[in-house]
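anyone seen this seq b4? input:
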Amino acid sequence: MEITGKLIQLLPLQTGMGRNGEWKKQEFILELEGTPAKRICFGCWNDNVISKLPVGSMLNVSFEIDSKKYNGTPI
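predicted toks r here
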């Protein structure tokens, strides 16, 4: 799927160590056009971090929706 919206907020960069080494996560909020305006939070990991984009930029975000199971229950 793809969504186009205006970058209205970059949330703080998160980092940590996992079994595969260091990781980085950057979440950001897009505002979609329409009445009322809708806001969606997305997250990028590692090489896809977007922390250098200025707030107000128009972004086209491609993403996949996926569901997983934990102990047989969808989460």
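Residues 2-64 form one domain. The chain has one domain: 2-64. kinda curious what u guys think
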